[in-house]
Write a structure and sequence with these properties.
The structure is a homodimer of 213-residue chains. With 213 residues, chain A is of the alpha/beta class. In chain A, 47% of the residues lie in helices and 17% in strands. Chain A is globular, with a radius of gyration of 20 Å.
């Protein structure tokens, strides 16, 4: 099995995302220069990528979107189902559950976990909420590969430790705290407030500059 | 006014985040090596940063957290209030509104916007929801500097265009689509689904590798 570099994987997923949006908007073909411009990569890069694909386009209509997606997914080997679990069913957790409902058939959130008795056994976007005490057992039994952490900062490391012990290979942490995982576990930290603070900083700078002018 | 490089700004905000977490957990002092390890930077880097700060620590207790935060914020010049608006009051929008309520006194979401009649005039986490048609006028009047976009992909570019026309200097886009802004506008795109897909890809790879062993 060839290993695709991380940057290529990310670019391919961006292609997929743009193509999904185009399909939803009613298009069935796309030109490579549209893709390049929308995704923010050079037309040369898109052409190089296309050379490795078994995909035929025409100068009049461009490339057929459905075939293009199938080709991308076969390279990403993501036709296989990946099972995920989500820990922390607050607003952010619910937003993620509702997004994945039916939109990505190959990615399935098989269970959600919380400690709030009012949420346990309820179903959000087709996904049942279990007590956090069931986390380790459920992940092992379902062989879930990915854990999504949407708990407060104070519980994030504990959730990560349980998920790793239960056998997940990848984690996405949304809690505003840096968590630690053993080598070999793929970790992505998405810090929403940090990003908002950073943008605010640069927006403030740019406003001040304008006032001075 | 000195301009701090983007990486330093990000690192300083990570320091702030860790220090806030420590304060909330009841500590009032911190050692530089704890900070380095928690934030994932080298102890040398932390010591270099500390040399520029007007802050005294002791070998027994480390640095006083409140003074450390004040020093960081003075370097980030973020004692001034930054006004933000949020467009799209779905689950993700609500999650962001509730997070910012009172936690960051210098960052205030002054208004939220949606097109759903059921949400208009309601108040979420202290923030009133207005009809999207009021967006441009409100941003201009309030002199909001930052726009947070939490609408679906199909409306994200339109929301961005209105926000830029109304005078924001920074945008954070959560919609799963690449948006375009004029030069001089600071844009951060946070694509939650893309990140989850990427982690799933690498988790799958790592599981397969294990099976082969």
């Amino acid at each position: 099995m060839t290993k695709i570099p991380q940057r290529t994987v990310e670019r391919f997923f961006r292609y997929c995302q743009f193509l999904h949006n185009r399909l939803e908007a009613g298009s069935d073909h796309v030109f490579s220069h549209e893709l390049a411009s929308a995704v923010g990569v050079s037309p040369e890069q898109v052409r190089r990528d296309l050379m490795n694909f078994d995909l035929k386009g025409t100068p009049q209509r461009g490339y057929p979107i459905k075939e293009f997606l199938a080709e991308l997914y076969s390279h990403l080997e993501s036709s296989a189902l990946t099972k995920m679990v989500l820990v922390g069913v607050g607003n952010l957790g619910k937003a993620i559950l509702s997004y994945f409902l039916k939109r990505r058939p190959n990615l399935s959130i098989v269970a959600a976990f919380d400690q709030d008795p009012e949420k346990i056994n309820r179903v959000y976007s087709g996904c049942q909420v279990h007590h956090i005490g069931q986390l380790e057992k459920t992940v092992s039994r379902e062989k879930a590969a990915v854990g999504i952490i949407t708990v407060p900062a104070s519980s994030a490391q504990e959730a990560a430790d349980i998920l790793v012990r239960a056998g997940v290979r990848g984690l996405i942490n949304f809690a505003p705290v840096q968590i630690k995982v053993p080598a070999g576990i793929f970790l992505e930290q998405i810090d929403i407030t940090l990003s908002i603070e950073k943008v605010s900083y640069f927006a403030r700078k740019s406003r001040l500059k304008e006032k001075v002018k």
